[in-house]
Amino acid sequence: MSLHTETSRSKLIIYNAIIEDAGIYRCQATDASGHTEEASVVLEIYQRLTFRDVQSPQEFRHGETAEVVCDVISSPVPVVVWYYQDKEITEEHHSRYQVLANNNLQIHQVTKADEGVYRCEASVEARGEIDFVDIAVVVNVPPVLSVFQPSFNATADYQESVTFTCITSGSPDPMVTWHRKGQQLEPSEKYIFNKLEGGRSMLTIRNIRQVDGGSYSCKATNKAGSQERELFLKVFVQPHITQLKNVTAVEGSAAMISCVAEGEPLPDISWRRASDAQTFMDGDKSRDGRFEVRGRHGKSVLTISGVRLTDLGRFDCEAQSRIGGHQKSMFLDIEYIPKFLTNHTIFYSWEGNPVNISCDVMSNPPATMLWRRERFTISEGTPNMQIHGSEGKSVLEVTPMSDRDFGRYNCTARNNIGVRYQEFILAQADVPSNPYSVRLSAVSQRLATVTFMKPDSHGGVPISYYLVQYKELGSQDWRDVRSHSVQTTVVLTGLEPNTTYEVRVAAVNGKGQGEFSHTETFQTLPIREPSPPAVHGQRGMGKAYRLGLVKQDDGGMPIVEYIVKYKTDKEEQWMTKLVPGANDYAMLQPLQWNTRYEVEITARNVKGLSEPTFYQFFMPQKPDITESLFSGLGLGAVVGLGLGALLLLLVLVDVSCFFLRHCGLLMCITRTLCSKKTATSGKGKEMEEGKAAYLKLPLKEENGKESLKPDTIEIKVHGDNSLHIKPDDSKA
After folding, report:
1. Which residues cross the membrane (predicted)?
2. What is the mean pLDDT of residues 195-218?
3. pLDDT tens, position by position, 25-70
């Protein structure tokens, strides 16, 4: 404001007048005498159309009541009209639309379809003033999440991957995040994020492990709100036995074997005893009540009551589920008091002869062993005694020097479970008693078999062998024959025929020889004719037949010869063949084809002839020439002959093609050679008129035997290509 005062005039100037400047202004004048007069002036200011801070776009949430703000002022008050899509909005035609007293546009339950540009038009008709503003209305739709597969199954430790998929919609497009246990997941080698068209967002979990199982959430967020859906990953884990230890128990006590396994789902646990493959399940109990299985929550306990040594060994724990199985083994070791393994407690020896007294012990843990005699401990320095020890065995070597060294010895075995004793007796040994029941069997001209019974007493020392003595009756010189080991049968050889012998038997052990048995007498058989020989036949080569000769009893003298007589079944006269007695076969040849033969074989020694042995055989029909030719050849020779014959046939065919059809390998060679000779002279004929070629092929047997008739095939080829063969040659 600016005030200008003159002598009789005053001016109040208002620059840039605003609505607030309107009102009543009073001008007051006072003269010199103090008389005052005043006058009033009413100032009216008209506001032009003004839109104040109209925002565009204006955003609203889907479904709510939207109020589109259009703040316009003027003086006088303007008239406001709203337009949408070039059409005036009236309450008559748009029930959800309402223009409020403050000129704002209210839209009930706004939807995405209401989105667009709205025009707010204001006018002052008195002044003819009009103006408008376009306001963009944006409707934000909250996210909508959908999950087609809310749960997945996977197996851990198999490099498997699982992909979760969320499908989102909303406006503006929602931002999708993935969460687990309240924490947002970030991209990594473990978690892979992908976004595809259609609002599909995917989370891939790689290399599934047991810790990856559980709940995951997919969260979609935009300006209108957020929505979250849960997904679940079920991770199956192969059974794995985490605890199984070897157990040591004392015989007779109880043993508890524990097996702990994990997996998803929790596996069932069973036990298997390796010694007999017997299986125990949860709740099982053995027939004798000693084995019982109890388990829960992935733990199984096998309880063995009254542990026995037979329980020693491997036990297998197997965890099994529908995903797979896992097996581990443990060893049940049993500690027990020493046990002596032998009841042999009496040993025999004699003065000067060392003897080993063995104390064999089975124990766990290993036992320490001591030897005592008459309450005195035997040590390494004890005269004429030595101790040799190894695990589970202690040997006391005693060399008796007098009667005092014979008697009782004590072996003591001790471990931390207990102590045991075993007493041994060292007794003086004696020579064996005499064998009895001496018998002679299989007596022949040169041989005799002696059998006898073992003596009743071996003298405390094992028998080493038996001594058999024999001599001719009336002679004073006994001959000795030892038995093989401790056999009670001895064969006497080299005896004279028709001779009486005496025989007796004694047993020998380490102490010495015992008494002889009662003397027995026997007589060898006199010399006689041999027994008939045994015969077996086999066809020979060609017209020959081989007779196998098996010598029987020779009657006490060697076979000099075999007399073989043979004839056909249609003849009366015998043919004779002498075969030396040392031979084991006779070859009969030549024989007739397709004929039955009768054979009579007699063996002869110096005493005379044996009874004859009769035999028959049949000679087959005569084989054909092919069989004759090849019967003596092997497979390789026959194959070679076949290939040779095939080659010869090919040569004959090629020669025939050469002369008859002017073709073949020979023709090709001839043309090649002739073409070189006649290249300049023009000679084209290979054979002159009337000129003939001859081919002579001798036929022989290939096996080197008699040659066939030395005929030849003579082929005559004339110039007219005719072939002429001599009539006689057709045989060849």
Report:
1. 629-652
2. 93
3. 999 988 888 899 899 999 888 888 899 999 999 999 999 999 999 9
Tokens 């009486």, located at residue: 500
| Range 47-140 classified under CATH 2.130.10.120 | no
Cα separation, 44 vs 21, whole angstroms:
8
Return the minimum-mean-pLDDT range out of 170-179, 264-273, 406-415, 544-553. 544-553
Name residue, tokens 């070039």: 86
Q: What is the DSSP code (8-state) at residue 728?
A: G
Q: How far is it, in rounded angstroms, from Cα 122 to Cα 244?
A: 90
Please report the pLDDT score of residue 126 as a whole number: 84
Per the CB < 8 A criterion, the answer to whether 500 and 472 are in contact is yes
Give the count of beta carbons closer than 10 Å to the beta carbon of residue 666.
15
Third-level CATH fold of 245-336 = Immunoglobulin-like (2.60.40)
pLDDT above 70 for 405? yes
Take residue 206 and report the two structure tokens written for it. Answer: 């790689």
Q: Domain 341-428: which topology?
A: Immunoglobulin-like (2.60.40)
Looking at 2.60.40.10, 1.10.3720.10, 3.40.30.10, 2.60.120.10, the CATH number of the domain 150-236 comes to: 2.60.40.10
674 and 686 in contact (C-beta within 8 Å)?
A: yes
pLDDT of residue 676: 53
Q: How far apart are CA 272 and CA 259, in angstroms?
A: 12
Structure tokens at 257: 């074997």
DSSP lists the bridge partners of residue 71 as none
Instruction: Break the chain into its structural domains and give their ranges.
Output: 2-43, 47-140, 150-236, 245-336, 341-428, 436-523, 534-619
Query: Mean pLDDT, the chain, as a whole number?
Result: 86
| Other Cβ atoms closer than 10 A to 572 | 6
Q: What is the pTM of this model?
A: 0.47
* pLDDT the model gives residue 193: 95
Instruction: Return d(Cα 530, Cα 605) in angstroms, integer.
Output: 7
Q: Which CATH class is domain 436-523?
A: mainly beta
Check if 47-140 and 341-428 are the same fold: yes
Architecture in CATH for domain 534-619: Sandwich (2.60)
- State CA 215 to chain mean position distance: 40
List all residues 6 or more positions away from 11 whose beta carbon is below 8 Å from its beta carbon.
Answer: 3, 4, 5
pLDDT given at position 540? 73
d(CA 298, CA 260): 6
DSSP type of residue 442? S
Note the pLDDT of residue 683.
39
Burial of 717 (0-12, 13-18, 19+ CB in 10 A): buried
pLDDT of 694 reads 34
Beta strands in 147-224 (DSSP E): 151-155, 162-171, 175-180, 183-184, 191-196, 200-205, 214-222
Give dist(CA 384, CA 34) in Å, integer: 170
Tell me if 469 sits within 8 A of 480, measured CB to CB: yes
